[in-house]
Structures are given as structure tokens and as C-alpha cells.
Sequence to fold (547 residues):
Amino acid sequence: MDLTIPKTASADPYPLLIKQLLHTPMVWAPEQEIVYRDKVRLTYRSFRERIGRLASALEALGVGPGDTVAVMDWDSHRYLEAYFAVPMMGAVLHHINVRLSPEQVLHTMNHAGDKVVLVHTDFLPLMASLRSRLDTVSHLVLMTDNGAPADLPVPFEGEYEELLAAADPGYVFPDFDENTRATTFYTTGTTGLPKGVYFSHRQLVLHTLGLIAGLSTPALHCRVHNGDVYMPLTPMFHVHAWGVPYMMTLLGVKQVYPGRYEPAMIGRLLATEGVTISHCVPTILQMLVASPAVQQLDLSSWKVIIGGSALTSSLARAALDLGIDVITGYGMSESCPLLSLSHMTPDMAGWSEEDQIRVRTSTGRPVPLVDLRLWDGEGNELPRDGKSRGEIVARAPWMTQGYFKNPEASEELWRGGYLHTGDIATQDELGYLKIVDRLKDVIKTGGEWISSLDLEEIIVSHPAVAEAAVIGVPDPKWGERPAAFVVAKPGQKDQLSEEVIQEHVAGFAEKGVIPGYGIPDRVLIVEALPKTSVGKLDKKKLRETAG
Fold:
């Protein structure tokens, strides 16, 4: 029997398009504020008008359906306007990772086929170095906070605000297929050029709803609602700032955009704008909790979601000591990114702080609509016993279908019908995941596996250590042996040495927390650890340093 729902000729199929996210805030909160640093204050009503003006201005520059518009900007109201206006036209928004090397940026722009680029004045030197080698770019638009410089190094069609002021706010955004590509950005790996990841309107709308389901339903803590004040501390070019700006716009909350990350400005906005919810990588949170300007604030209403790298127990404890409600979120560029969140359940309210921190620093539980499993090397599902280690594989309705113009890598990403994360984890009987390492970072010594993340957690528990990274280095006898790179807390460098760290780790080996062969053979006390363009530890560079 055919159970297909018949179509009524006059019924509206209502495609899941990004423009549909604007209906609710325009009814619920048209006078709510969107703030940029200490420079700009908009209402949602004026924000919606500016979206129309931006689309009209881009259309006047020749942008139409299928064209690609790129952005080089810090976290700003302008970037948020592009989040909506560009894909709502049927065009594609390319989030340029401005922290890549110039040659990598050039590759991504030519590979994406950028037609128009919106460029902040801070990136004029970069654009000047690339302009003559950009194959498809026809127009540049200048974005500035303090006025255009007297001498521009390359020609521009005009300044962003001037173009918007002259444009029609009444642009009519059309309906089209919800599977139309809306965004593209590029993710870097350990080898080769950056790979393009892309998402459709349907995927971004469903991801927005998944975020709402995952963040607004917990009963105990870190719950997001439409009375919150949101400030992202994740670059807007990185996985759509984890997709949270779309969610916050749909909810009609007050939004605060800090521009370039500066502790003093972030602290000022936290205090003056009443920020209650943010997200960032551990490096940013570490910077903030160590800032005297931030330590003086009342942070008891601030909720922070940590992603990108592991949240250590010591950093979680430092945040909790300041009143910050901190949890972990997990995902990857290819998953849009949300897969899991580490909210505690109500029965955990009476647990000890140590046990609560263990949950907060876990990888969390899958959010609604995510089918997440652990597979062994043969594709067999592993039990949820908190011990069995396997690769996290997942399905969800918002995951990328592949890499842009790279069918071979796309097939490898989705082999077996599930997206492969490359992360090794355990999962307990309550569903909480704990990533123990990346496939490529597991240290194989004497036929046994050692988790680099476990060793890093142990080293950072030393009171004089601020950050640590552990890698495997080749060893003729054991295959690999652990090597540790350690950054001291301010004024504590003289308290650290190779022997001190080895003795500290040996104490955990004596307690049976790790095997004895996990004690690192080499420990280097360094001034800083190399980071990737999105703030993750760059272990590729550490391996190069270690030879």
C-alpha cells in the first residue's frame, strides 16, 4: 500500500531555508539589541532591514544564485548580516579562515570560486598580497571600524556602510530548494591543502533546531533560553561560530560581538552588556580566567561551552572557582559541528565537585537526532561499558555530505555509511563519551597504546603547569615513546624541569592511573605551544620540532 502523502496543489511545501529563522525574532523581539564592541547598537528590526540592503548591494555587484561571496572580518554585526543575506539570496557564503597562511587562503578562495569579497581593513595587507592571483574575484567591498585609510593598496567598489546606505532594504528573498548549498569553509588537516566543507540550507536549519534541543532542555545547569545575552568567543569563520549565531537569532536573544579578541574588551562587554552565554576553545578560556580584569568581575551568571580541544580538570576547576558554569561541547567541522554536550543530569547535583568535574570535562552525550556509535577497526559496534575504546562514527541530518570537489576524500569520510571522526573514545552506560585520543595521536609503545590526552591531563594537574602537549616520537626499541612539551604558569618556570614532570607523572603510574611506560622520556619546558588557525594544539608542528 502506498503511504506517500499526496500533494495538494495549493499547499506550500515550506522549504527549510535560512530566511525562515528570521520569522520568530521579528515577532518576539523586534526591538532586541545586537551590539558590536562599543561602536554599534542595532535592533533586530534594523538588522533585518540591513540584511535586505546588503542583498541589494550585492545584487548590484552582479551576485546571483550560485555565486560565492567571501568574508574577511572579525566577529561583528556585519558578519552576522552576511550569515543571512548571502545564502538567503541563493548565493554561497565562504567563511575565509584569516588565520591560515597566505598561500592557503589563496587556495581556498580560488577553489571556492569567490566572486565578491568583503574585507576588513585589518586584512588589507593580506588582500594586497593575493589580489593579482585571485582567479574569480570581480569586486572587493571594504569594511572599516574607524574610516577608510587614505591610500588603499587595491581597488574597492566601495565601503560597506556607504553601499548599504544607498541600497534598497526591500530585497525580496525567494524560495528555492532547501538542499541548495548555503555555506563553504575550509578545514585543515595534518597533510595536504585545506579541504572544503559545505552545508545546505536544510542542514543549517536542522542544526539550529538540534542546538536548541541540546542546549535548552537540560534541567540542572548551563541551559540556554531567550532571556540570555550571547557573546561568541569562537571565530565566526569557524564552522559558523559552531552554528550558535543562527540559534541565538532564531530565539531573539541579545547578541554581543567583540570583534578582535582582546581580554580588556571582552571583560568590558561581559560587565556592561550582561553577557550570560559564550563558547570558545580552552586557550581563550585560559587567557580569560588568568586576566586580572576578568577575575574582578562577577561571573556567576556566565555559561561557557568549551570545544575544539579537551577541557582539562584544572581549567574547569579554575572556571568554576570564578563562578563560571562550564561544560564541554563536541563535534567537528564536517559535522556542522554539534554532536554531544556534557550537561549533568539532575541526580548528579549532590555529587562531589571532583565527580561533577569529571562529567563536565567528558565529551558528553549525543544530542537529539544524533546517531553516534563506537566502532572497532573492523566496523563492529563496541559496548557502552566505559572501557572499550573505538572510533566515534556518527550520523545526523546536518552533517556535510562530503568535501567540495574532492570525491575520494568524501568517500573515505563516509565509509560504511557513517561519518568517521578520527577520535578514539569510550562510552559509559549513561551514554557519556570520553575521548581518549585522536587516531593519529595515539602513542604506540612496546605494542601498547598510551593516550596523549590522558598524559596531558596528568601533567596539567601539576600546580606550576599552564598547558601541556604530548606526542609520540620514534624509538628504535619501543616503536614510539612519549615526549611532553610543557608551558609554565606565570612566574612558575623555575619550579619546572624534566625531572619534576617525570616524577609527577610517575606518581600517577604508581597509583595505577597509567602504566609505567607512559612516563615521558623527554620533557621540554617551552614558552608557548603552537596552535592551529582555530586555537587547537598543532601536534604536527610539535612532531617537526621533536625531529
Observations:
- The chain has 18 helices and 25 strands.
